[in-house]
Amino acid sequence: MPAFICEIRAGLDPAIKAKLGKEITDLVNDVIKSPFDLISVVFHDLDAVDTYRSGDQTHDVLILGHIRKGRTDGAVERLALGISATWSRITGVSEDDIEVVIQEYPAKFTFRAGQRLPEPPIV
């Protein structure tokens, strides 16, 4: 935790995924101060028939971010907007076609390696 699940149309070049994974990780570390070893970026490749908006097929990108509760609203907003801008810059996808959702969870319900994670840094 934090974990960012990227729901995307299949076919994104692996080198682009690697660049996105690195830059999103760096952004998360910079904005909400999570240690690098806790940050995950996961790509789910979807077929054309798997993505719809308003009942029509779409190429939209949906990024679901999961973080520990405790950051300021401003930090969460900077993170979401930064991820959207980073994705657009690297892929060329318009920000009109990118949705970023940040969900916060109490640290007491967040575990890694069989251990409860500590409260997040206050930023």
- Provide the domain count: 1
CATH class (first level) name: Alpha Beta
Query: Beta-sheet strand percentage?
Result: 25-35%
- Mass-distribution shape: globular
Main beta-sheet annotation: 4 strands, mixed
> What is the annotated CATH architecture?
2-Layer Sandwich
Number of strands: 8
Provide mean pLDDT, rounded.
94
Poorly predicted parts? none
CATH topology: Macrophage Migration Inhibitory Factor
In whole angstroms, the N-to-C terminal distance is: 16 Å
Query: What is the spatial order of strands in the main beta sheet?
Result: 2-1-5-6
Set down the secondary structure blueprint.
Layout: E1 3-9, H1 14-32, E2 40-46, E3 52-53, E4 56-57, E5 61-68, H2 73-91, E6 98-105, E7 111-112, E8 115-116
Parallel strand pairs: 1-2, 5-6
Antiparallel strand pairs: 1-5, 3-4, 7-8
Helix pairs in contact: 1-2
Task: Characterise the protein shown here.
With 123 residues, this protein is α/β, with parallel strands linked by helices. It has a single domain, classed as Macrophage Migration Inhibitory Factor, CATH 3.30.429. The protein has 2 helices and 8 strands, in the order E-H-E-E-E-E-H-E-E-E. Strands 2-1-5-6 form a 4-stranded mixed beta sheet, covered by helices on one side. The chain has a two-stranded antiparallel sheet with strand order 3-4. A two-stranded antiparallel sheet has the order 7-8. Strand 3 and strand 4 form a beta hairpin. Helix 1 packs antiparallel against helix 2. The protein starts with a strand and ends in a 7-residue tail after the last strand. The model has no long low-confidence stretch (mean pLDDT 94).
